[in-house]
Specification:
Layout: H1 2-47, E1 54-55, E2 66-73, E3 76-91, E4 94-107, E5 110-121, E6 127-135, E7 140-148, E8 153-156, E9 161-164, H2 173-179, E10 190-193, E11 204-216, E12 219-229, E13 243-247, E14 254-261, E15 264-274, E16 282-283
Antiparallel strand pairs: 1-16, 2-3, 2-15, 3-4, 4-5, 5-6, 6-7, 7-8, 8-9, 10-11, 11-12, 12-13, 13-14, 14-15
């Protein structure tokens, strides 16, 4: 009998202990599971890579901007030119303005038929690609340069040629002409930049010479006159004594361009102008 009572007591005690252990475990689980779920949620949130906002740079030009020009040599009309933002393109997944400069004309003993194109990142305002197809009496050139700022190199597409980029925000002859429209300019000052894509082309020097009223076929304009100097061959070469005439307002519209080429002094006079649609907003 006593043994039976002892056995019953022992059984009851074991059941009570088991119940307490069960309650303790459920309490621990109840406390741990939400924390574990919460931690998992934090990890899930941390694993999401949020895109970086890239704000489109504010500029006075946009797709559709187009200027047509009368080309003269020695004051004689000999051809036509076009300077335009031909549209938006994508270079290696990067949205870019597509700039085009065309000059065609000449006389029987001297002729020029040039097409130069540039693709500029709409956020960083740096060049991604530069194409030249130059046909002049004493100078011909057909090359396409691709720029890789992250690798610090440029490459020529037509042949196996490459070199170091002089800047991680490179510019070429044409993109430079657009980029200079985005910066403040003060008459009498000289600005130097080291953004030309080839080291030997730097520093690029921009002299703000004067304000001048000019009359061209498109009308009469108040302009600010710049003298750009790039230490390479081309429109803005050191010996070319090029001058750019931009409207003296927020548009910085190109009204006239003059440059000494191998065949003589070339000038572009604005005949007509179509404004573009400047971009705004952000990219993700």
């Amino acid at each position: 009998m006593k043994l039976l009572l002892f056995s019953n007591f022992h059984v009851v005690t074991m059941k009570t202990t088991a119940r307490r252990l069960f309650l303790a475990c459920t309490t621990v689980i109840a406390a741990v599971v939400p924390s574990a779920l919460q931690y998992a949620d934090v990890l899930a949130q941390a694993s999401v890579i949020r895109p970086i906002e890239r704000r489109i740079a504010s500029v006075p030009f946009g797709p559709g901007e187009r200027g047509t020009f009368k080309v003269t040599f020695g004051g004689i009309g000999v051809g036509r030119g076009v300077v335009e933002v031909a549209g938006l393109d994508t270079i290696r997944g990067i949205p870019a303005y597509h700039f085009v400069l065309k000059i065609k004309g000449g006389v029987p003993f001297a002729h020029v038929d040039d097409v130069q194109e540039s693709w500029m990142d709409i956020v960083r305002l740096s060049s991604l690609r530069f194409h030249q197809n130059l046909n002049q009496v004493k100078y011909k050139r057909r090359l396409t340069f691709d720029f890789f700022p992250s690798e610090g190199i440029w490459k020529v597409l037509e042949r196996e040629q490459s070199g170091p980029l002089a800047s991680n925000q490179p510019l070429d002859d044409i993109s430079f002409m657009y980029w200079v429209r985005t910066i403040p300019l003060e008459v009498g000052k000289t600005y130097t930049f080291t953004r030309y894509f080839k080291t030997e082309g730097n520093p690029v020097v921009v002299k703000v010479l004067r304000r001048e009223t000019v009359k061209v076929p498109a009308g009469t304009f108040q302009t600010i006159v710049l003298k750009p100097i790039i230490k390479t061959k081309g429109l803005f070469s050191e010996g070319g004594e090029a001058e750019l005439y931009f409207t003296d307002d927020s548009r910085r519209m190109l009204v006239m361009l003059s440059s000494k080429l191998s065949i003589g002094t070339l000038k572009l006079h604005l005949e007509s102008y179509t404004p573009g649609d400047p971009l705004s907003g952000s990219l993700f």
